[in-house]
Design a protein that fits this description.
alpha/beta; Rossmann fold; seven-stranded mixed sheet; six-stranded mixed sheet; 45% helix
Length: 750
């Protein structure tokens, strides 16, 4: 199965790059330095198709002449807009589709939407992964799945079973030899897969060498097959004795790899990681197949973290984690970098700003099909970009004034020189014109020193200075929320008084169902900002069901304003839209919303709403729902709520499928929206910006007095839901974060 996946990737992800001409015997497997990297995603093709035979028009170009540079032991955050190809780049690295990545590099990948991770070298080689358990295995437990991914226990045990049965056989003297040859042949098939991929990806002299190695190995495979086909009569006694002993030696070697002490140590680490990710001890023996999608992703994450790796790649690892799990993962990755003897290089894609700022040391910015690097966190990066633009803008303005002055003196010198016949004046004008044409531009290098042509401006140029090029603003993410209409008479939008809830007890069970919520008091008025935080399983979903009236309380009263229109964004909204899209392959965002409004809005109004949320023109009308990214589906789900003009938005984990640019834009839009907002989220930035009213430190200093007055009237409250009870957090989400930091310290110390 893995073989086809990798072959499909090789066919649809086309990669080319510059290759080093030096042969490196012992490379640092934790580092990458790849120049001239081009990655294009095509709609498909035959496995083995070469990138140079494809035109750009036949696929989506992700990278063009980019440089991918990873330093050993450094933690990176890969940032870029939804749909720019971040996951594709990670997949190309993990599956070693990029020429120049050594085949022996161990790369562990947690995919955002995959049902299981890829652990190189075994998982990315295809056949080597065939004996490893998948989430569809009926009886394998969570703990067994995690341990197996780190140790290849099942694969080793399979070889042990084959050899053991043969060595212990007293019936057939040739059984050990047959078993040994079978095991060796299967291993050679896995190695052949790697060599074949290497030969297809490389070009030039190294490609020729790789193809020669492949041909030589194919001969060995053929010889191995012939040896398996030999009859007993064709095998001499010396060979029988030698290979029987080799089978016994290999069996002992494999058994030593699964010694109880070694496995016990791995199992202890696995239990610790699973506990940090929120698994109760009782759930470790549950079959993986019985878990929900979120818990399967956590199982995959545990397997990736436990596996030895040179490069660790995590695509949205905080999805489906509560704040305790997120903080634990932060500390785990930092400890891995600071305390490990040979820490892996880490590359992370995440929408969680706080997570990136805490864990990552450098940023890799994917923009305009190229990669740029920044040493520092997102806050420093935003500040640096603004300061650089301001500095370059002032420099260019100053030079424009200087150019105007020089041009004026040139005209004066020419006029005076011609009038008086003064050759010195004319030579002076010519010299100044040369300076104006040739030596105006950057005065300082990127490092701050004096600009030097032979050092700071590579290639052939007509001028001795680089022009002052002010980076263009990246097109802002567009999210505009339509205003909420006023209610005709005042009153709370939603009110919960002394509410309690517990599920009905089963008649067959003598155990009384526990109380999920008790003594809940909550009142939301127009314009309020309310945040609810808590660990998974604390009752947040039940609270939302009570507010949205999909569940009735066991005790207490829930009342709503008679004219209230409530918009509810479910944490499963994206998955529901994807399922709907697969059931109707031709369904587009425009078609779906047109069907949903049922004549209430005309097409122009529908397109206007979709456009205001970032789904303009052909994106809304031509692209099927199945082809929309996670971020685009979030926007579509919002459109399906906002056309009804709600006065209250209830948002349950809305940031899960968004990039951090869109999270920021959505948070800003919600901050200034005139309706009321209830946010349930593990994203600390979202709670601080929307509920607590935190401002962008580098943002605009000018605000309308009217807006300030509206902000002062807003009621802002963050609640902690714990043990079925809800209390106000006076210090907001920071207080909750600090309490979890202490719990994480105890978990890591255990």
């Amino acid at each position: 199965m893995a073989t086809s996946n990798v072959e499909e990737s090789a066919a649809t992800i086309l990669v080319s790059c510059k290759q080093t001409r030096f042969h490196i015997e012992s490379p640092n497997y934790q580092e990458l330095d790849i120049e001239g990297l081009n990655i294009t995603v095509t709609s498909g093709g035959k496995p083995g198709a070469k990138a140079k035979g494809k035109s750009k028009a036949e696929g989506l170009e992700i990278l063009s002449s980019a440089t991918l540079r990873l330093k050993a032991g450094t933690s990176y955050a890969l940032i870029g807009r939804n749909g720019t190809g971040k996951s594709t780049i990670l997949k190309a690295v993990a599956e070693k589709l990029i020429p120049g990545i050594p085949l022996k590099t161990r790369i562990s990948l947690l995919q955002q939407t995959s049902s299981r991770p890829v652990n190189s070298p075994e998982d990315t080689t295809g056949p080597a992964n065939s004996s490893m358990p998948s989430n569809s295995a009926g009886d394998i437990s969570v703990l067994e799945a995690v341990v197996d991914r780190a140790t290849a226990k099942n694969e080793i045990q399979n070889e042990i079973n084959i050899l053991s049965a043969a060595v212990d056989s007293s019936v057939n003297a040739y059984a050990p030899l047959r078993a040994l040859r079978h095991v060796q042949h299967e291993r050679m098939k896995k190695e052949l897969f790697e060599l074949d991929k290497d030969a297809r990806l490389r070009s030039g002299t190294r490609g020729m060498a790789a193809r020669k190695a492949l041909l030589a190995f194919e001969k060995k495979i053929a010889e191995s097959a012939d040896r398996i086909a030999q009859t007993d009569e064709e095998i001499d006694d010396a060979t029988l004795k030698e290979e029987t002993q080799a089978a016994a030696d290999l069996l002992l070697e494999l058994q030593s790899q699964l010694e109880p002490n070694k496995l016990a140590e791995v199992e202890t680490k696995a239990r610790s990681i699973l506990a940090g990710l929120g698994f109760p001890a009782s759930n470790l023996v549950k079959p993986v197949s019985s878990l929900s999608g979120g818990w399967k992703m956590r199982t995959n994450l545990a397997g990736v973290l436990l596996s030895p790796a040179d490069i660790l790649i995590l695509d949205e690892p905080t999805n489906f984690l509560d704040l305790l799990g997120i903080i634990w993962l932060q500390r785990f990755l930092i400890n891995l970098r600071e305390t490990g003897p040979d820490p892996p290089t880490v590359v992370i894609v995440s929408h969680d700003r706080d997570f990136i700022n805490t864990v990552c040391q450098e940023l890799i910015i994917l923009r305009d099909q190229t990669l740029t690097y920044f040493r520092g966190d997102l806050i420093s990066y935003d500040t640096s970009v603004r300061e650089k633009k301001l500095y370059l803008g002032r420099m260019r303005d100053a030079q424009e004034k200087q150019k105007a002055h020089i041009q004026q003196t040139i005209q004066q010198n020419i006029k005076q020189g011609k009038a008086a016949g003064d050759e010195n004046k004319l030579r002076q004008a010519k010299s100044r014109q040369k300076k104006l044409d040739d030596r105006m531009g950057m005065e300082r290098s990127a490092k701050g020193g004096r600009f030097k042509l032979n050092r700071d401006l590579a290639g052939f140029h007509l001028t001795a200075r680089a022009e002052i090029d002010i980076p263009a603003d990246e097109k802002a993410v567009s999210i505009l929320l339509p205003a909420a209409p006023d209610l005709r008479f005042p009153g709370p939008l939603v009110s919960l008084e002394k509410v309690a809830f517990k599920y009905a007890s089963s008649k067959k069970s003598a155990v009384t169902a526990p109380t999920v919520l008790e003594e809940i008091d909550l009142t939301i008025h127009a314009g309020d900002r309310v945040g609810v935080v808590g660990l998974n399983g604390c009752g947040k979903s039940t609270l939302i069901k009570l507010i949205t009236e999909t569940t009735k309380p066991t005790k207490g009263t829930v009342s709503r304003h008679p004219r209230l229109r409530l918009g509810y964004y479910s944490q499963h909204a994206v998955e529901e839209l994807q399922a709907l899209g697969y059931s109707e392959p031709d369904l587009t965002a425009l078609t779906l919303l047109t069907r949903d409004v049922d004549g209430t809005l005309n097409e122009g109004e529908i397109r206007g709403l979709l456009g205001s949320l970032g789904l303009p023109g052909r994106t809304a009308s031509d692209i099927p729902v199945t082809k929309l990214s996670g971020g685009q589906l979030v926007r579509l789900a919002l459109a399906m709520l906002l056309w009804r003009e709600p006065q209250l938005l209830v948002l349950d984990e809305i940031t899960t499928h968004l990039d951090f640019h869109t999270v920021t834009a959505l948070a800003d839009a919600l901050s200034y929206w005139n309706g009321a907002v209830l946010v349930v989220s593990h994203d600390r930035f979202m709670i601080r910006r929307v509920v607590e009213g935190e401002k962008d430190d580098v943002g605009s200093e000018d605000e309308d007095d009217e807006t300030d007055e509206e902000e002062e009237l807003r009621r802002r409250t963050v609640f902690l839901l714990k043990g079925g009870k809800m209390k106000v957090l006076d210090n907001g989400v920071k207080a909750f974060e600090e309490s979890l930091e202490k719990r994480v310290s105890k978990l890591l110390a255990a």
